[in-house]
Amino acid sequence: MPSRIPFGPLAAAALLLGAGASFGAIFETPLFTVKKVVGEVRIEKPDGTTDLVRPDYSYPYDSVLVVPATLPPASLAAARRQGVEPEKPWVSIALANDFRFVIGEGSRVRVLDGTTGDGDMRTELKILDIETGSVRTAITAAVKKHGGTKDAEAEANLAAIVIRTPVGECTRLSQRNEVSVRPDPSVPGYYNCRFFSQPGQMEISGNQYRLDEVHRNTAILIDGNDEVTSIEPESGEFTGNFERGLDENGQIVMEKVFFKSRTVAKVWRRHVAVGGRLAVSVMASFPDGSRKSYVFLEGQKNVGTMDGSPADGPVQPADAPNGDDAPADSGSDWGSSDSGSDWGSSDSGSDWGSSDSDGGSSDAGSDAGDTDFGDFDFF
After folding, report:
1. Contacts of 225 (CB under 8 A, 6+ apart)
2. pLDDT for res 25
3. Over pLDDT 90: what percentage of the chain?
4. More confident residue, 124 or 321
5. What does the mean pLDDT of the chain come to?
6. Can you list the positions of beta strands (E) in 263-358?
7. Which pLDDT band, with edges at 50, 70 and 90, does 68 fall under?
8. Nearest one of 108, 112, 114, 135 to 200, comparing CA atoms
9. What pLDDT does residue 156 have?
10. What is the C-alpha to C-alpha distance for residues 110 and 50, in angstroms, rounded to an integer?
11. How far apart are CA 321 and CA 126, in angstroms?
């Protein structure tokens, strides 16, 4: 996806490297290692060749791992003869001892070295680019900040990994998370993505939005394409920030939205006929039926608020909910008040899986190395 976040993980990694940190390299070799394989997983290497993946082998970055949706027919038949449920294909990889990942069935994932905006290679940043399928993280690198020289190492660990999807990028990852991408079969170029932080943490950012400090037992559904993005919680609570144009000093203004059960935010984008600027419309709806929205032209100040009529505003969608908008003051916090509605966790009936943890809030500053990954036995 286009990179337009003013200060993102690539810039942060460049600053860390430029600061001359004294700790050792996170990724000590120019290769990543496949640990275990189930099924006929293939790898498309940067030289154009394709091979079957083998366990305990190392492969070059800029390779694509292709995991089939099912096991080979012979393996399925053997499982049926034994009366057992066939295991789904997967492959586990290690970029370093403390940075391990499992790629699930039906996946295409490219494993990349990070680069800066000018194209320079940054070996202390790795990117997992999910075209389709899922990635689970098992990151045990310490991220707790105690003060002193160790803080630079903790920050480097947080800046070391990016998981890229068609709707946004996951950064500042630690511990156990899962990111899934599914192309919508009915709309070409439209994706349904799910971001699940189990006993872990992450941040998610995309065009015109950023979701900060996504913690334990929080699942977020983000759907969309280049023209529209829809964000809603499946479980848990989190805070989002959405662009709303520039202030008097030419700086991007962010609008804060508190997400709880049945809160939904949408961003629509369209190039206007006159001038060709990108017009952006943002709307958030809340459990009590209220909603707030505004529209702006990229690179300009906020144009103003809109009501529910599709005719008002250049990118107001025809399927927007009916109702009146309250004024959207710059810098306000949307959704922070308790309207008296039932804010309990939503039960979507999804088969994406759930965390086996005991609930509660995650300590964002905890040492990931102390995490018990339980059934995460893929290495």
Report:
1. 166, 187, 189, 190, 191
2. 72
3. 47
4. 124
5. 77
6. 264-271, 278-285, 291-297, 302-305, 333-334
7. very high
8. 135
9. 85
10. 13
11. 41
| Tokens describing residue 131 | 């075209």
Say if residues 139 and 175 touch (Cβ distance below 8 Å): yes
Give the distance, in angstroms, between the CA of residue 314 and the centroid of all CA atoms in the same chain.
Answer: 29
Residue 110 is predicted with a pLDDT of 97
Class of 1-236 in CATH: mainly beta
Over residues 316-375, the pLDDT tens digits come to 333 333 333 333 333 445 554 333 322 223 333 333 334 333 333 333 344 433 334 444
The pLDDT, as a whole number, for residue 299 is 82
pTM score, two decimals?
0.75
Cα torsion angle, 58, 34, 2, 160, sign: negative
Cα separation, 30 vs 13, in Å, equals: 17
Q: Two tokens at 139?
A: 């990151």
Dihedral sign of CA atoms 104, 190, 215, 149 in order: positive
Q: Where are the domains of the chain?
A: 1-236, 252-341
Burial label for 85, CB within 10 Å (0-12, 13-18, 19+), is exposed
Within a 10 A sphere around the Cβ of 76, how many other Cβ atoms?
12
